[in-house]
Amino acid sequence: MADPSSYRPGPGSIPDSPGVYRFRDEHRRVIYVGKAKSLRQRLASYFQDLANLHPRTRTMVTTAASVEWTVVSTEVEALQLEYSWIKEYDPRFNVKYRDDKSYPYLAVTMNEEFPRVQVMRGQKRKGVRYFGPYGHAWAIRDTVDLLLRVFPVRTCSAGVFKNAARTGRPCLLGYIDKCSAPCVGRVTPEEHRELADEFCDFMAGRTGTYIRRLEQRMTDAAEEMEYERAARLRDDIEALRKAMEKSAVVLADATDADLVAVAEDELEAAVQIFHVRGGRVRGQRGWVTDKVEEITTGALVEHALQQLYGEEKGDAVPKEVLVPALPDPVEPVQEWLTERRGANVSLRIPQRGDKKALMETVARNAQQALILHKTKRASDLTTRSRALEEIAQALDLESAPLRIECYDISHFQGDDVVASMVVFEDGLQRKSEYRRFQIKGFEGQDDVRSMHEVITRRFRRYLAEKERTGEWADGEDGLTDEDGRPRRFAYPPQLVVVDGGQPQVAAAKRALDELGIDDIAVCGLAKRLEEVWLPDDDDPVVLPRTSEGLYLLQRVRDEAHRFAITYQRAKRAKRFRAGPLDDVPGLGDARKQALIKHFGSVKRLRSATIDQICEIPGIGRKTAETIVAALAGATPAGPAVNTATGEIMEEDEHDGTPGTTPDTPGEPVTAGAPDERRGQER
Fold first, then answer.
1. What angle do CA 454, 458, 463 make, to 5 degrees?
2. What is the tens place of the pLDDT at every residue in 206-248?
3. TM segments (predicted)?
4. Among 327, 325, 324, which residue's Cα sits nearest to residue 361?
5. Hey, is 342 helix, strand or coil?
């Protein structure tokens, strides 16, 4: 590990002008390429106290052994040179989209004497018209098959073409009129090129004019009583319309645009691109990348645009590029795109209308791509095993933590403070073991104190179960009840993860120490920098960005956060819907709904006798007496007002339980006590 001060450039040696810089390691390999409006300011930001740097940046500058730069005239030149160097050196610390040019394109080789229509992958070639990309090669072949009857362009390989020319016999497509057979001279090179031009015009979106022309020719043929030619033209029009139906109209006015959306978390980002030509989605592609460096959404967009258009020119760069966030600064990128196209390019964020709606669709695709990527990664047994081994090694555990419990605290401005406990066994979610807690020991917001309370309550229950059953007595494990069901809180984890840094980890460790538990490891995952904190350690454990162990810890933490905030929101919503029956001790939601359904409103229930209430199934006399006493002491709700008319509604229509109707059952919650139906402490 190198000390950045050992290769820091001397004072005043870095120019204050635009440029591109390269960090190299001790073997002279380029590990990072960046551009800057001011090289002096940007490079100075790398040579500061390491504690102030982002962990990924810190890793990069300590891996590097030297830095060099190249001065350019403008920021646009810097953008171009940065792209060229990233392509040339493939630096390990730069964002790299895992695209590998594998998406298939529909290509027309206009650089040949007899242009050929074919599926192409890989690097793009000069003189070849490309359409797409497509998700699957078969989608290209289906489209081409429909269009060949109208545009019978050559599709055969060079070998087949030469063999047909030598023998004087065309291939099968020539006999069934899906090829104009230029190999045997049925059409001249000029006529065949004209067919290829028409094919390209149609694929580029200029469809309406061509179909109208065919319709006119069909009408003329019918008027001249050339019915066979008219039928042929009718079938051609139908084939073209079928080809057009494969891509629905999404934007009006025959818009040409690319829409770029990004879905990201702390470690990875997914990019999705929809290519819209002539108002129709002509292609879609997507990438996933590791976030090697600290990077904003705008910077991710900039890297995506470099990858998209770095090798493109002319019409391949659309008039309009819609993005979720603009690069900073945006002017050089927009100028670079304009230069690539040879005409003005609009780079902007859609604000309203069809384009904003389509951008939301692209964003959903990006989110689904990221989820699918993570799901595939998590479902692999080998990957899970490696993740658990990496965690054990990083935290110095004796064995892999087969059961991991993670805890998170959630509240709304200090109110409705709750906690969650999620369980992963063998790297997979165990949702039946999830638990939820209400913080009961104090009022207000104190995440550290809340964490101490939750850990104490959970493991006090564990010790109680262990003591009550006599763990492993008489050869039995003592972890199941008489019916063979697992006892709640009976299984201890090998690792406790808390959402937070040093304070939360210290609180969790202190709670375990107070209970005399010393065989359960504790760590915390701080969300901002993805650092792993251990008790009594002043410095965090920084797992590599490619670590499957870090990825698993992140999934565990995120699931705990999701579970906690879902419960907190539900609890807050239930508090807002509270009515007078909520103050009746021991009356759950099921019986409250039965009472409202039977009497119709709280007003009628308030006027009912004890004997009438006892008629409700499940309501005993003692409970009925409690209900009557509680409602007698409750203040009736004021009359409701119809905000549309201003009139006062009858009290029967407004029963004093806002948000609760006989047809809207709520979820029973007993504060501070377990919900036996769900087996979750709240």
1. 140
2. 666 677 777 888 888 888 888 887 887 788 777 777 666 555 5
3. none
4. 324
5. coil
Structural class in CATH, domain 579-633: mainly alpha
**Can you tell me which residue has the tokens 């069934």?**
176
The residues, ordered by sequence, that sit 6+ positions from 504 with a Cβ below 8 Å of its Cβ are 447, 448, 451, 498, 524
Distance CA 282, CA 451 (A): 52
Fold annotation for 381-468+490-571: Nucleotidyltransferase; domain 5 (3.30.420)
Rounded to the nearest angstrom, the gap between the alpha carbon of residue 134 and the centroid of all alpha carbons in its chain is 22
Residue 60 CB contacts under 8 Å (≥ 6 apart), including other chains: 23, 31, 32, 93, 293
Q: 19-89 is classed in which CATH architecture?
A: 3-Layer(aba) Sandwich (3.40)
Query: Could you say which DSSP state residue 528 is in?
Result: T
Q: Tell me: the pLDDT tens digits for 331-358?
A: 888 889 998 888 888 898 988 888 888 8
Q: What stretch(es) of the chain map to CATH 3.30.420.340?
A: 381-468+490-571
SS3 412: strand
Does domain 257-377 bear CATH number 2.60.40? no
CA atoms within 13 A on the CB side of 500: 22
Distance CA(186)–CA(481), nearest Å, equals 86
| Adjacent-strand bridge partners of 68 | 22
Residues written for the chain: 682
Are 150 and 162 a contacting pair, CB within 8 Å? no
d(CA 17, CA 666): 64
